[in-house]
Here is the input.
Amino acid sequence: MRFSSQLKGLISFEFSLHSGYSRVMTTLDIKIYPDEVLRQKTELVTEFSKELHQFLDNMAETMYSANGVGLAAPQVGVLQRITVIDVSEEGNDLMEFINPQIIAREGKVPSEEGCLSIPDFRDKIFRAETVTVEAVNRHGEPFSVEADELLAICLQHEIDHLEGVLFIDHLTRLKKDMFKRKWKKRLLEAEASA
Ligand SMILES: [Zn+2]
Here is the structure.
């Protein structure tokens, strides 16, 4: 997920679940809409191995190098229930959510969003104002987070990805049609210049 720096400044950050962030990392390829993998559902993670830890490190690296505030595994072509998020201004509050579930939502707020898988497109949708999320960390230990502001928005955006849902799916029909026309034009232009 991508946010304007203006929105980033609004966050009040209460949780830091950063654990064992290693320094050997690879940047993964981000899948771009309409890649089919973005529409698939993900599977629960059952093994909390070294491979998982490496993958989490690579996801974080990929998110940071793309200037994102969140990244979900399907966006790098992996159909597992994993997302990384860092909504801090300094990019030093990495949060890892494995097998996350939203167990409560409250309120409704407008949210202007973008997505690393849908470059150069932003639009306003509505999200719950606060969410409670249960997940496990990279060692399989459960935790829960009550989130508001940008973190709440980001969690909803990323957990949607784990269900094959994109933020454009929340647009009104009219805006969805506008997006589709815009994207079609973009693809045609890309083809023409290739
Ligand atoms: Zn996204």
Residues 1, 115-117, 157, 161 surround zinc ion (CB under 6 Å).
